[in-house]
Structures are given as C-alpha cells and as structure tokens.
Amino acid sequence: MIEVRDLRVRYGGRVVADVPELDVREGECVAIVGESGSGKSTTLMSLLGLTPDAEISGHVRVCGVDVLTASPRRLREIRGARVALVMQSPQAALSPATRLGVLMRRALKLHGVGNSAGTPPEEIMGEAVEAVLLDREILRRYPHEISGGQAQRFAIALAIALGAEVILADEPTSALDVTVQAEVVGVLRRLREERGLALLLVSHDLALVSTIADRVLVMKDGAVVESGPAARVLAEPSHPYTRELLEALP
Ligand SMILES: Nc1ncnc2c1ncn2[C@@H]1O[C@H](COP(=O)(O)OP(=O)(O)OP(=O)(O)O)[C@@H](O)[C@H]1O
C-alpha cells in the first residue's frame, strides 16, 4: 500500500527527512518514532504530496499512485478517500456549527460515496460510526458536544465511511488521557485486523507503539537511525538513540 525508496525532503537546502526504505502492506502497522523535529511529520505529509514548499526526491508509491510525479487530479483521487489522514486534535478541524452527521454526509458526497444504487449513505455512516465503537446517535451532535477521544474515533469513522485503505496517523492519541488513548488504539488495531487497513503511525510515544506496531523506524535529525520488527527494536535496540528514547519512558 505504501512503498518508499530513497525519499529525501529538503527545506531551503537542509535535509529534514531522509528515508531509504519504508513499506507498509495491507493489514500492517508501521510506526515512525523520534523526538520533536526529527522529520516524522514531514515524512508522513510527503506521502500525500502535502509538502508544497519542499524539494523532494526519491520514489513514493501510495495505493498504486506515484506521488512525486502524479498530477494534482490523480493525487486528489487518493487523498481523503483511499488514504486518510488522522491528526492530533481533529476537533479543531470540525466546523463548529455543523452536526457530525451533516459533515460526514458532505464528505461522502464530495468523494462520490453512496451516491449511486447500493448501500444508502445513512447506512454507510451508521456502520462506520459503529465500527469505531460509537453510537449512531453521535451523528446528531455538534463537535463541541463530544469528547477528544470521541472526536478522534469520529475522524477514523470518517476514513472508514470513505472506504480508506490506508490511515496515516500523526500523534493520534497524544492529546488524550491514558484510558481514552487505549480506546483509540484498540479501535485502530481492530480495523487493521478486520478490514486489512494499512496503518502508518507517527508517534513519540514508545509505549503506544509497542502495543500496535509490527515494525518501527526510529528517526533522529531527519535520518532513520534504526528500523526493524517492533518487538526486536523495542526489546534490543541497537542504536544508542533508541536506547535513550526507551530509557526516557516513565
Ligand atoms: N514548511 C516548512 N518549512 C521549513 N522547514 C520545515 C517545514 N516543515 C517542517 N520543517 C522543519 O523540518 C524539520 C522536521 O519537522 P517535522 O515536523 O517533520 O518533525 P517531527 O519529528 O514530526 O516533529 P514534531 O513531533 O514536533 O511534529 C524541523 O526542523 C522543522 O522545522
């Protein structure tokens, strides 16, 4: 679903992300970890062609689309619908005076989902909301009437309703308290097992990563200093920086 080779992202001549290899297959979860400024978000955004001011080289293929050479039209085909972006605080991105159901319905319409004969949009929306363990009733609420954890699950439900095959999640749980974090992680884990969603997660939280990721890339100052199966990297880190990150855990 995601195939990256020799990706290099520069801002003003400075390399901020240098990723020789990154693959995420169907049903797999890969995490990028590292401290603030290490290039994690830049790597994630470049997968959707969302680093307009950057100089980019390499090879990036997402859902069969060659992102670095694709036309804007081709990129729009994958953004939002096939590849969903889940950010830290989705509530800020939700229009405050619009009920969640109306918002989701608009997104479906924009991407042409549920318009033709087949499952009616209301049913697609209801199923998506239930898939993230929310009650259908939430669709009648306004964004300020839901909690941070519910907002995050709603953002994931939106991705499901649109038929996303890949979820790119940038610190999806860092604005949430610990019990709510566990709920969101549980939802993501189920979706990848049951629906074969590919998940690329950016996080500075190694405890979270250890509960969900199959593989881990550790980034420092724009470079990948270590990568491999999550169990191995977290149990027997080979790079001093990974050891430092692990020692910093509470
Ligand atoms: N649009 C931009 N123009 C110039 N420099 C940028 C731009 N976006 C990011 N950078 C720089 O790229 C580097 C990597 O930033 P990035 O946001 O990818 O790090 P990160 O690991 O995701 O950090 P955080 O966890 O704080 O989000 C930083 O030094 C940042 O200042």
From TrEMBL:
Topology term for the membrane: Peripheral membrane protein
InterPro entries assigned to the protein according to its UniProt record, in alphabetical order: AAA+_ATPase, ABC_Ni/Peptide_Import, ABC_transporter-like_ATP-bd, ABC_transporter-like_CS, P-loop_NTPase
Subcellular location: Cell membrane
Key word Cell membrane present: yes
Keywords in alphabetical order: ATP-binding, Cell membrane, Membrane, Nucleotide-binding, Transport
Any Pfam family matching the protein: ABC_tran
Superkingdom to which the source organism belongs: Bacteria
Main location, first listed in the record: membrane
ABC transporter domain residues: 2-246
Family assignment from sequence similarity: Belongs to the ABC transporter superfamily.
Protein name, UniProt field: ABC-type glutathione transport system ATPase component
Species of provenance: Nonomuraea angiospora
